[in-house]
Amino acid sequence: MIAKYGRQLDDVKNNREYEALTKEIELQRLDIQLSEKRIREVEVSVVAKDETLQAAKEKMGEKNKNLDTKKVELDKIIAKTEKDGNKLQKQSESQRQVIEERLLKAYDRVRTSYRNGLAVVTVERDACGGCFNKIPPQLQLEISLQKKIIACEHCGRILVDASVVDALAQA
Ligand SMILES: [Zn+2]
């Protein structure tokens, strides 16, 4: 536009045309200055955004590395849990062969009727470990003697002495 107006300046006919053209040229120059200022501002903001992006990428790289490690750990845990689960399932199946039908029925009923699926619990702080109702001292004594199968009178879960659980955990 400046070049075009410059060429027009060469053949102006009067002062009014000359002034109009020089004013247009001046306006175009101001426009250029304003645009250049905007370009500089944008360039500064590009640099800042690029720094932010680099920092975010670095962080993401670290997080991804961490995620990969966790995934490997999780896979191991899943594999081990599955193995343990299968082993326990087999143990459960073989033990069921030697347990009275009526006890199995009671056990299965309790297993499926409670959300946590626990059918066998210990006495914790004088209370049933499943429903948390108090267990009378006499009953606690009987449980510790391990002479017969005792169920919680509130929830029906089978109550066992803590030593039974300890022995199983070590087995
Ligand atoms: Zn209970």
Keywords for this entry:
171 residues, alpha+beta, four-stranded mixed β-sheet, rod-shaped, binds zinc ion
Description:
This protein is an alpha+beta fold and 171 residues long. It has a four-stranded mixed beta sheet with strand order 2-1-4-3. The protein has helices at residues 2-10, 15-96, 101-113, 137-145, 162-170, and strands at residues 120-124, 127-128, 150-151, 158-160. Strand 3 (150-151) and strand 4 form a beta hairpin. Bound molecules: zinc ion. Zinc ion binds next to loops.
Q: Which SSEs are present, and which pair or pack?
A:
Blueprint: H1 2-10, H2 15-96, H3 101-113, E1 120-124, E2 127-128, H4 137-145, E3 150-151, E4 158-160, H5 162-170
Parallel strand pairs: 1-4
Antiparallel strand pairs: 1-2, 3-4
Helix pairs in contact: 1-2
Bound molecules: zinc ion.
